[in-house]
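=== Structure Prediction Worksheet ===
Name of assembly: unnamed complex
Input type: mixed (protein and possibly other molecules)
Chain count: two
Listed entries:
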Amino acid sequence: MGVRASRSGGGDAASAVGRPPASLRRQLEELAREVAAATPGVGSAACTAVAVPGGRFGVALRLAAELVPLRPLADEVRSRIVTAAVSAGLAEALGPVDIAIDDIVAPDEGDA
Amino acid sequence: MVLVLRALARLVTFVLLLALAVAGGAAALFSIQAGEDPLSLASLAGRLRLPELRDTVGDYLDQLEADGPLASISLLAGAGAVVASLLLLIGALAPRRERLLVLEEGDEGRIAARARPFEQLAAAAVRRGGATDARARLRVQRGGRSGRLGLRLAHPRNEPASALTERASAELAPLLTPFRVEPRIEAKVADKGARVR
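=== Predicted Assembly ===
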């Protein structure tokens, strides 16, 4: 409980039916969610991106973490998101990254 | 203010539901028989003095139609009831915002944690330190910049509370220090048969 299924998602289905490419906001949302969920120590992640002043998008992540120290985990998630955004050419669009630890899950719970 | 309204709304809800349950039970019970029998609805109305109440209300409504002090008082009471209803609605519908314990807030964003995962981590850390049982309760201060962690732990009978408290503090330090949380540890002897997990 705690972290619900991500609000971002469905990109594959969209491209399969020939819809236009996802918006910048959606791309950032997707990228942040995928990167966060792939970070060791993160059980599951939900993400929302919203426009912030300056033409960028702030990313708000809610994580269900495993039983690991929270501060290093949050730092790692943020660092990976920034790196991934740079690699994807989205660094200019990425605004502040808010991370909220929502719940603690057992390692196998996060995979479910 | 909202906390008081929320508590009041819960109390009123409980009382109204209780009254509804009692009324429903009474109506069901007094539907067993019909006519003027003891367990009929007519009998229930008689026991509750509903005919007298109808006369009283009738008199009141007659007075209300005429100008006079009763009309003014009733108007004020009606306005009061509307205000009370609005306050109860606020208490029932106002969104509950759980305070977050904020670790860092700046241009790069915010790092925060809800109380529950924090409590879970603290309890797990204390168990690692040898407690047979641990319960943690975090109170986040206004603004979310700091908090107070109440920890109740049970220690094995063959181990002094002070030793366990010391170990618990050491286990908690890496978790609490970055979050500026002050622990308050209470230790008690574990129940007979309890083991360290």
